[in-house]
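Hi there,

I know you've been waiting on this one. I reran it after we fixed the sequence typo, so this is the corrected version. Both the input and the resulting structure follow.
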Amino acid sequence: MRMKRCSIIAVGTVIMVFSHITGANQADDTTIRITGQTAGATPFISKVSLAVSNTTLLKNIQFTITPKPGSVTRPLSGTYANSYLIDRGFENVQTGEVVLPVYGLYDGYNNSVKLTCRFLDGSSKQINTSITTATFNDTCGYKTPTILQRRTNSTDLSYDYMMLKGGCSDFAPAILDTDGRLRWVGTAGISAGSAIFFDNAAYMGNGRKLSRIDLDGAFTELADYSDLGIINFHHNIDVGKVGIILDADTTTYYNCVNIEVDASGRVLKQWNLATIISAAMIAGGDDPSQFVHPTPTDWFHNNAVAYNRADDSLIVSSRENFLICIDYETGAIKWILGDTTKKWYRFPSLRKFALTLAPGSMVPIGQHTPSITADHNLLVLDNAQPSDRRYSSPRKYRLDLVNKVATEVWNFPMNQSIYCPFCGSVYEDAPNNYLIDYAIVNGGLPGSLNSWVWTPLARQSFPIGTRPSTVERSIAPCPFIWKTRSSRQ
């Protein structure tokens, strides 16, 4: 069922606050007034109409939404450069009419919003207004989570928003704040197979197509990659060297192909791990047909990648085997980190790339979401499936590539109480600021949570537990970090 367009109730009192600077300035010389509001594509978006006496003097316009009472999040704000408003058709230079999309509103609520208009000479003026929104029909249960532990009253956490994807609705992806409140949903009317927040928009892989949803709700289908033999995008979309990297299935291989595209969807680079690994095995005297297989065999199961700018490499997560690092340009294998009891280690051609674990370190098994942290270490969610460990944990490794040793330097095992055999993720937004998603808690057994999102912070932690009864796939939700000050420049 597609989402219905929801109306937004008329605005309340408007109060204008002028910046007072000695002498005449562009803010004093320019008249700005609100002339109306129009409902956006969802209750989380409103389009505010302005009449500006001289738009050529404008530098940018910023909106700021006041958090609800009791919220610990910083105010959500967005800044639109005047050139952006013109390019998107939101500003008519001849008439002075400006349409300002305001996104991230609370649904079913009278939102207090401040507009700050900045001018080329550095002066500014503010307009305070209110936007009352309709209630959003949430079929996923995002608005009614089971709160296991509320976040503390500290604003030390580096981020305030997170993006989730899932198969429980046609309004994917969704963005929640760290108070646990729903603040934005997709407008494409589809269930996202993979998603990322990039270039101030939500990018979604669905089937063989890539789409973009801007924060103002505008939907654009960017590209169809069937000419590359791609039939489906799956799992993750990750930040690449220049653009974003998608996990793809093709007509010949399952879960072992990646492509990087730019913000417009133009293909920049392709990697086929079947081809890369086969070439290495042949060069090392092994028969790749004993390990690498064409579709439909799920021999690799690529679920995420991470670009490492330090050495221009790509780290690919193969759930069935290992973490494998390849040279970004050539595709040559650099190292492998994985369970040495698995089949890959039987082949000398692959074994020679293996990193050794330092004493006391645990190998990641069935891992997800590799990433490079601020301290240049490797972070993954160790699902520990299959293994005799019945708990999952984020783990961070320091890699000594000269001596080929991986040392575990951080983990967060939650007293070994949570087992997430499949899916899930961990991300570091800033030092000591993590976001962990246990997508299937304790094996998804009756009575267990469908998903558990937890953020540990030094001296502070707060999980958001959800029981969305309509979630259809275990990959939901998978969080991505959304910055509170995502500017529209």
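Quick highlight: Confidence is low (pLDDT under 50) at residues 1-22, 446-451, 457-489.

Best,
R. S.
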